[in-house]
Design a protein that fits this description.
It holds the Pfam family Aldedh. By secondary structure, this protein is α/β, with parallel strands linked by helices. It has two domains: about 5-255 and about 465-480, 3-Layer(aba) Sandwich (Aldehyde Dehydrogenase, Chain A, domain 1), CATH 3.40.605; about 260-460, 3-Layer(aba) Sandwich (Aldehyde Dehydrogenase, Chain A, domain 2), CATH 3.40.309. The chain has 16 helices and 21 strands. It has helices at about 45-65, 65-85, 85-95, 100-115, 120-125, 160-170, 185-195, 210-220, 230-245, 265-280, 295-310, 330-345, 385, 400-410, 425-435, 470-475, and strands spanning about 5, 25-30, 35-40, 130-135, 135-145, 145-150, 175-180, 205, 225-230, 250, 260, 290-295, 350-355, 375, 395, 415, 415-420, 440, 460, 460-465, 480-485. Strands 13-14-15-12-11-17-18 form a seven-stranded mixed beta sheet, sandwiched between helices. Helix 15 links the parallel strand 17 and strand 18. The protein starts with a strand and ends in a 29-residue tail after the last strand. The structure holds nicotinamide-adenine-dinucleotide.
Length: about 525
């Protein structure tokens, strides 16, 4: 069987250049069947150089295009993505494995950043102070950085590239995306739709690759900024190497989000929320809720009782099964990794209440499926608690009181998201103020902020100072220039009579300074 090749999108075209890939490629699977469905070209420094040259050529003109016209490209792009939603969602599911409804959500959450970017003329208005001193005004303007790059993970192949590229492009930069080599097709389609929407060639480009391409990006002197999302060790590496090369870097990492269940919570609602938040998308979400913390013994017993049948009722199916709760994980290696973590949890003494290992979907025995798992009596010393599993595995960590429940997520190495379920406004308010985590949900299991707010965790969940999208994104992708201006009174100049020009010291030119 011949498999298609997924090429870079450079200078408006997807054909590989003479040096494209240097001969290396990566396998792209269909996680539903377990078969290789495509090969992605793994790029080299030479491919990046071609993309940078195209970006360099196009960016000054794009930056000089007025923001309203740039916004019109965003409006048209949004229309095109909506018109192609079904095709994009199918393509996304076929490489990632998430169910179609989740793929549409992935695209939709990215489009919301594009909607935010449609307002870029308003957003880019600078600050102005009239009369900062006698006759002196101060104003600021935000200018693009030039060429920026994004390096993205496999789990949101539409949303995360759009978080970065939407804001980078709307603010006048050229943007080079290095998507995950595990599901690279949707990013290329997004690039094609940007071109169709009227974006000039070279402003949004896609280069595929692995560590070699990432290192080439980090070291390239013409790239001013790098936005990364992925696992924490790599995020830290990207942050250090990029900063050392003099770049602006934001690097989002892994997560282990906790859901605190207070004794007064509506347990039926909590269980319904956990079914989605812990197991949806096979747990491959950085805002998933893989740890649940019931407060008090009674809450723990009642919650566990309700969770077991709810987990048994979850339907694992192929991505195109409309009734499936979740689909396969991204590849066989990731499934083995999840299964190894389950074994580690058992070895460390946690109680495995529901074991999802060894699950086979009839008719799809080679697909990368794994059933849902539930652990109870997980403790903070266990490595299976400390580390991210990134699969359909829920861990119960029992807390004796509110103080312990605040301490658990606060002391964890990751600090992406956290949720509290309660009917007590005071408890929720205290929790939100005190917890050492970047994004908090109150009776909201997955508190991903809307596009006009910003996304970002704390501790080992993010390196760098600025969040993704919203005004933080605008700050990341622009540099601020502040102008202090003084216009002396023109009437003080000598008369200009000799050359016939206007005399400027007459009464008509006396302009009193107001500020
Ligand atoms: P990953 O770290 O394996 O890959 C992310 C990117 O880094 C990919 O583009 C990949 O090609 C590149 N990469 C991989 N190995 C590299 C290396 N050795 N050197 C340089 N670059 C390398 O992550 P993933 O498995 O694709 O995605 C899942 C991870 O991403 C999870 O840890 C998840 O929590 C995290 N994530 C975080 C957020 C967030 O906003 N905090 C959002 C989504 C996903």
């Amino acid at each position: 069987m011949t498999v298609r090749t997924i090429e870079h999108l450079i200078a408006g075209g997807t054909a590989g250049g003479p040096s494209s890939g240097g001969g290396r490629s990566g396998d792209v699977f269909d996680p539903n069947s377990g078969e290789i469905q495509a090969r992605v070209t793994l790029g080299t420094q030479a491919d990046l150089d071609r993309a940078v040259a195209a970006a360099h050529k196009a960016q000054p003109g794009w930056a000089a295009t007025n923001p309203q016209r740039r916004a019109r490209v965003m409006f048209e792009f949004k229309r095109l993505v909506e018109a192609n939603m079904d095709e994009l969602a199918r393509l996304l599911s076929s490489e990632h494995g998430k169910v179609i409804a989740d793929s549409k959500g992935d695209i939709q959450r990215g489009l919301e950043v594009i909607e935010f970017c449609c307002g870029i003329p308003h957003i880019l208005k600078g600050e102005y102070t009239q009369g900062a001193g006698p006759g002196i005004d101060v104003y600021s303007m935000r200018q693009p950085l030039g060429i920026g790059a994004g390096i993205t993970p496999f789990n949101f192949p539409a949303m995360i590239p759009l978080w970065m590229s939407g804001v980078a492009i709307a603010t006048g930069n050229a943007f080079i995306l290095k998507p995950s080599e595990r599901d690279p097709s949707v990013p290329v389609r997004l690039g094609e739709l940007f071109l169709e929407a009227g974006l000039p060639e070279g402003i949004f480009q896609v280069v595929h690759g692995d560590k070699e391409m990432v290192d080439a990006i980090l070291d390239h002197p013409a790239i001013s900024a790098v936005s990364f999302v992925g696992s924490s060790d790599i995020a830290h590496y990207v942050y250090r190497r990029g900063v050392e090369a003099g770049k602006r870097v934001q690097a989002m990492g892994g997560a282990k989000n906790h859901g605190i269940v207070m004794p007064d919570a509506d347990l039926d609602q909590v269980v319904a929320d956990l079914s989605g938040a812990a197991f949806g998308s096979a747990g491959e979400r950085c805002m998933a809720l893989p740890v649940v913390v019931p407060v008090g013994e009674k809450t723990a017993i009642a919650l566990r009782e309700k969770l077991i049948p709810a987990i048994a009722a979850l339907r694992v199916g192929v991505s195109t099964d409309n009734d499936a709760h979740y689909g396969p994980v991204v590849n066989a290696a990731h499934r083995s990794r999840i299964e190894n973590w389950i074994q580690t949890g058992v070895d460390e003494g946690a109680e495995l209440v529901v074991d999802g290992r060894g699950f086979e979907l009839q008719g799809h025995e080679k697909g990368f499926f794994i059933g849902p798992s539930l652990f109870d009596h997980v403790t903070t010393e266990m490595s299976a608690y400390k580390e991210e599993i990134f699969g359909p595995v829920l861990q119960i960590v029992r807390a004796k009181d509110f103080e312990e429940a605040v301490r658990l997520p606060s002391e964890h190495q990751y600090g992406n998201g956290v949720a509290i379920f309660t009917r007590n406004g005071h408890a929720a308010r205290e929790f939100a103020a005190r917890v050492n985590v970047g994004m908090v949900g109150i009776n909201v299991p997955i508190p991903v902020p809307v596009a006009y707010h910003t996304f970002g965790g704390w501790k080992r969940s993010a390196f760098g100072d600025t969040n993704q999208h919203g005004m933080e994104g605008v700050k990341f992708w622009t540099k601020v220039k502040t102008i202090t201006q003084r216009w002396p009174d023109g009437s003080a100049l000598p008369a200009m009579a000799e050359d016939g020009g206007p005399a400027r010291n007459n009464d008509a030119f006396v302009i009193p300074t107001m500020g």
